[in-house]
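Thread: quick sanity check before group meeting

JM: Hey all, I'm pulling together slides for Thursday and realized we never actually wrote out the predicted structure for the chain we discussed last week. Dropping the sequence here so it's in one place. If anyone has concerns about the input, flag it before I start.
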Amino acid sequence: MKTKFLSISMLICSLLAGACAPQATPAPTQEPSTPPLLQSPVASVITVTDALGRSVTFQKPPQRIALAGKANLLVADALYMFPEAAQRVAVLGKGTQGTGNFLAVVDPQYEYKPKLENEVGPEQIAATIPDAVVLKSYLAETLGKPLEVLGLPVIYVDFETPEQYERDLKTLGQLFQDETRAQKVAEFYRTRVDGITQKISGLKEEQKPKVLLLYYSNKDGTVAFNVPPMSWMQTIMVQTAGGVPVWKDANLGKGWTKVNLEQIAAWDADQIFIVSYFKPVNEVVNELKADPQWQSLRAVKESKLYGFAGDMLSWDQADARWILGLTWLASKLHPNLFSDVNIQQEAQTFFTEMFGVSEVSFQKDILPLFSGDLP
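JM (edit): ok, ran it. Output follows.
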């Protein structure tokens, strides 16, 4: 990768001095504890193949990685499944969803790392002087290309579907020079998905419940319910868990599609799952159960209205937790087939094996934040 080092250095210096630079993080009152040093990577040329099929070459392993753009919080969780992330991810986006701060649990230095706004510009990212920038691929034109003009290497990922998860984990394995870890994480997901699909493989179509998954929002005080596109993780999870999404024949757009209560009633789902990213989902479900209009729905009458499971983040989305969401959902749709599932134990195993969270930390930092229809 050829770069005009002099011009870029001058640009970076000017950016650092300019008003567009992010606010400096206040110095801690005492020296923060430093995690044990990982073995230093061999200073050799590495090549990373990203989600767009591009080969990005580094003369030495990048030691200062920046994560930016919308949905960066979900991508950050994927990066932190690699033990190298705590030392080499130097710049993060600001999280705006859920309760608690999961990254602070797995990264002792999180508090002291620069945080970028979701609507960040290329100059602001450049001012943090990263060796590499990780972005969602849909940002390639609007943010990625301007960064490349500034001479910054960009790695694109998606992490939107199970297939993309396996592919993008390989990319991170190359970036962190830890392909063994990438394979181990991919195998963790693959084994659990295969276990679920094998259990439901003998089901006839009429044995699969009709499922409605709704995203509840109350932006500006206006309550709305929305269904996801067929290609999104939420719909994929319903189908993989052995359910039939009742909205599959609707004329959906590329994002969440608003639906009214009349349409919800017409679908007459066997089970309804509520997702809420900003208002506690348990509060939302309790309000709906008390609503006379919702009380007339068959799923509500039969006690089949559920808040989607979660902890600091909801388990329905394309976050590393999606495998927990899939496991939990399968146990709700087919309790007889998944009677052996202990979702609390599954969650503890997940956070321990994927993030190195201790049992003590799980019990203290994560379990108390369980939400939705969880024990």
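AS: nice. Confidence is low (pLDDT under 50) at residues 1-41. The first strand starts at residue 46 and ends at 49.
JM: adding both to the slides.
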